[in-house]
Every structure is written in structure tokens, then in C-alpha cells.
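Here we describe the complex-level prediction in full. Unlike the single-chain runs in Section 2.1, the two entities below were treated as one system.
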Amino acid sequence: MVNKKSQLDRPTENDLIEQKQMEWQKRLQETEKNHPPRPVQFTTLSGMEVPLLSSPADLKKEGFDYLRDLGFPGEYPFTRGVQRNLYRGKLWTMRQFAGFARAQETNQRFKLLLENGQTGLSTAFDMPTLMGLDADSPRGKGEVGKCGVSVSSLEDMEELFEGIPLSQVTTSMTINAPAIVILAMYFAVAEKQNVPREKVRGTLQNDILKEYIAQKEWIYPVLPAVKLVVDTIEYCTKHYPNWNSVSISGYHIREAGATAVQELAFTLADGLAYVDACLERGLLVDDFAPRLSFFFDVHNDFFEEIAKFRAARRIWARIMKERYGAKLEKSWMLRTHAQTAGVSLTAQQPYNNIVRVAIQAMAAILGGTNSLHTNSMDETLALPSHESVMIALRTQQIIAEESGIANVADPFGGSYFMEILTHKVEKEALNYIQKIEDLGGMIKAIESGFPQSEIANSAYQFQQQLESREKTMVGVNKYKLNEPDPEIETLSIDPAVEKQQVQKLAELRKKRPKTTFQQSIRNVKDAAQSGKNLMEPILHSVQSYATLQEICDSLKSVYGEYREIGRF
Amino acid sequence: MSQITKPKIRVLVAKPGLDGHDRGAKVIARALRDAGFEVIYTGLHQTPEMVITAAIEEDVHVVGLSILSGAHNSLVPEIINGIKKEGLTDALFLLGGIIPQEDIPQLKDLGVHMIFTPGASLNEVVKYIQLNAPERK
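The structure predicted for the assembly as a whole is:
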């Protein structure tokens, strides 16, 4: 490190390196006459050109400045990580996303994961829940408990966390359009367990902007939906100081087809839109920014992914400090969860997915993620089975405790190539963010369909690259087997689950006191009409066992519904 | 226009149910359009009735359903039966998405002509439609 720094400072030495590099380049051309490069494109997965070799001279050309661009772990601009001692103090949180069937079944899976060394919970909800529909809604027919756990009322939420002391776990909940209602249910359970508010820890995804961009589980139009996000941020800032009220997510954007740069740029631009909306509400940046968290995908291209995480932290820190004038270090820190790329997994030769996941997980950790979900090998086939979930968790544990990777902070820091790539990713992401700001910010950009069509274009282009074999997917467009793939035992959801949920809900509707829940729904609606913060009225409403859909529908009657034009 | 001897094959690409994963549907829709078919894309979150109405109104030759949420066993029969009942009996029914192997035989019995699972190529889908779409006068 000391050597390299002095090389950068002394121009004469740099001249010498440049000269030697040019000489080497000539010899390389000679070599390549006899040993030509393989006929493939040497680009990242996202199509960025990468050099064969990078040197200190190349780094100097980029204008690299160690103290300005890297600094030290736990310090501005956090390129090298947000914790000073990185994984020596605390390993990343191993957080496997789980949820299926009814609350009871998911509760069992949660307990199994905790018993096996997992350190945080992460809840997947089924499609009806994600859309603010009850289990007995005709629109959700056939979908109850399929992609996640079905939660229609506080009763389900109580069963979901039955026997799990909420003061001792951190819980992540992946839900967006009806997030405020689900959060109210979680807080109601914590209250019942008598957990002090400052001990309630976890993360609500609550990132509605990326729903319009990529994940597409929306209810309300964009503006009232963002208002609900700000309501939760405002409420948590005051009452639940250790709750991450939003997890600004690039994962779905990437899975929908975005490149690494698009993922980074759109996610950060979403983050800026929330910051602006909170400031508009009158919140102070240092009151809420420390609880904003992020969630990125981690895909196949090893170096590009590491660079993406490093660039993400640097861009966010600089914007929060320089543009918004945040004073607290915590406001500058981009803390992130990561998940390996579901879209990179193949149904063909599914055991290969274990290897893909391991490589992706290593990239996330070398990129300094704070929390990680590793996908199970069978996720392109069905919900993960018990066995494959265990392999995925063990993958993290092997990296953490056998590989030595967790001993060192940002081991790629100072790599000529990695620093150049980090700069490149940063520069291209900033260009995109500028483009979005020129369109009037992310909310306007979404309404005009800009990020949606950029992603659709990238997805189409990638598929064509697969078809032309310009890009390789092992087992899919190359190295195919002529024999059938091994049969893997997968998890299937008993259709009886839906009937049981519907019946349970019918019983709840009968046994709850009618007047209180009806009044509570009216209060929610009144508050929505007057523009008040909705968190308190919704909390009271879930406590009177009003259902998810009853609350969401009452808001829908005030806000209306979002409609997307089916562009392709 | 007058030089066209055969009518263009009309394909409905539909996203029934609550599933928001539309990457595959959009890529397929675009590939089919580029291959010269006339493509109608329903957009997201369609009820079976909405898909049936679209298929009938557009008088399509091919109905492609994309489902990644596991709700295929309930949505697919409702849509196929509905479309047939409304009189579009010769339509070619295709299904794409996350469909477990063990569900495939019964879906085929219900009238799905072909199921494209992850890793299927665009070319395969285009060729299949060219070969199997119904001829109409």
C-alpha cells in the first residue's frame, strides 16, 4: 500500500510505469499474433468493457485519490465498508427469506432456521397479501400461501411469531403496497409481547417506487403511495428508533432485467425521492436518514458486483453529506442487505446453482454487505425445499468461518482494476441519476415510464445475447445434457391451505366485535381524507382485528388505484 | 397490405393472477412481434374473465399465459374453458413460467398445447407457433 501511494505521488515513477506499460503492450500484440484472444467479448455481465490489465498509471489517469475516494472502513465516504472492523466485530446477518402456506408452517420454518444458526428472520408474504387482499378475496383464488405466507389479520401475525421473542430477533418483512398495515400488525404483536419500543428491530421493505419500476405489486397511485411510506418513516423516527422503515431495493429492478449500473442508479434515485418527500413533510434529514437501508441483487459478474457495492456506498455518502447537508455519520452510511440473483439460476442441471450462489455470495461479502440471503438451488423450480435451504445457509457459514474472507476489510481495495471499475460504475450511475433528475425526479420518471422501458430494453437485449450465445448460461445455451435433469424434491403447497385460511377468516369475521372494528376503519378513512399520518389509526384498526383488505380498501376509496399501460 | 396472402397470426400474451413478474412475458411479447406476429399484451394482474374477454375480442390464434406465482393449476383451466366456451375452440394455448414437472401432464390434459419452462429459447417459441397456430379462413 505504502509503495503504491508513493508511486502515485511521484510523477517520474509514473512516467516510467507508463513507458514500461506501453512496451509491454507491444509485446502483448506480438504474443496475441500467435495466441489470439478467445472469440468472446471481454465485458462485464452488464456489457462494460474491462481491460486485460490495469496499472498504477491507469489508476492515476482516472484521477484516483486514496483519501478522497476510499478513506478507511467505517469512515466517509465508506467505500471500504460501513463498519470500522468490518466482519471481525460482527459477521453479516444471515437472513434467509422464508414464507409459505399458513402462519403456522412459516413459524415452524422460522424456528428451524433460528435453531440452525440463522441470525435474523425474513418474511415472504403471498401474492394476495402483497396486493392488500384477504385470503378470501376472489382475486386471490389459487394464490393463497403459494409464494409466501398468507396474512389477512393480526391473528395470522400473532401465529407467525408465536414463541419467537421479538426482542431477540431482527425481522425483515418484504411487503410494499400494504406495508403500513403489516408494520402496524408487527408492532401490535411486539406490544402484546411487552417488548420495549427501542428493542423492536428489523426492516420493512416499504419501497413502493421500485414496485412501479419492477416488482409490480401496487395498489394506489404513486403520490399517495409515497405519502404512506413517509407516514411510516415519520412514525418510526418518533416511536421505533431502531426500526428500518424502508429498504430501498435494487433487487427486483435487477431481476427484471436491469444492468448493474441501472440497478444502482434507479435504486439510489428512489432513495433520493424518499429523502425529498420526507424533507417536504418537514422531517430533518439527520432524524430519518440513519434508518434508511438498502437491498441489492448480487449477480454472476464477480468484479462488477463488488464494484457496485463499493460505488453505492460512496455515491450515497457524498450525496447525503454534500447535497442534503446531513451531519451525522449514520446519515451518510449506506447499509445494505443483499440477495443472490434468482434470475441467474437455471432449471437445467440445478445442482450447478449451488456454485453460482457461492460465487455471488462471495462477491456480496467482498463488497461489504451487512446482511445476506443466499438462494436455494431449486428456486427456478418451486419454493425451496428444506434440504436446499440448508445448503444455501451452509454456503454462507462456509464463507464466514472456513474461507478466511471475513477476516479482512475490503481486500479488493487498492486493486488497480477494482478501483477503476468502481469509478466506472460510479460515473455511469451518476449519469443515469442526472438523467432522472432532468426528467423531474424519480416520481416523474416513473410516471413517464422511463425506468420501466430502460429495464425492458436491457432484458430483451440480454435474452438475445443468450440466444446468439454471445453470453453463456451453462447448461442452458452451452454444455447441455442429453439426459433428463435429476429430479429434485421440491416443496409444493397443499391446496387445502387456501380453504383453511378462508375458513379461519370467516370465523374471525364472526367472532370479532363488530362496532369497534367498523369504527376503526372509518377512522382510517377520515385520517386519509384529512391527510393525517395514518400509522396510529391503522394500528388501532389492526388491533380491533380489521383485516388487511378492509383497511386497504378503505384507503383505496380515498386514493384510487394505480393502472399501468401494458408496454412491452 | 393487399400483398399479404395469409392473415397475420395474432397472439395474446397474458399475465393472469396477481403475479408481478413480467420480465418473461414482455421479452416474449417483443420477440413474437419482431418475428412478425401481431401481439396483444394484456398487462399485469388480469382476472381470468379479463383474459377470456381479450382473447375473444381480439379473435386471437394463440393464447400465451405467463404465470410464475404457482397459481397455474387454478387459473389455467378457468381461462382455457372460458375461451373455448365463448367459441374460440381452435386457439393454441401456451404456458410459460415456473411450472413444476409434476403439474405438466394434468395441464396438458386440460388443453395446454405446450409449456415453456425456464431456459426455453425465444426461437423455440416462435417456431412452435409458426408450426402449430390454427389456420383460419
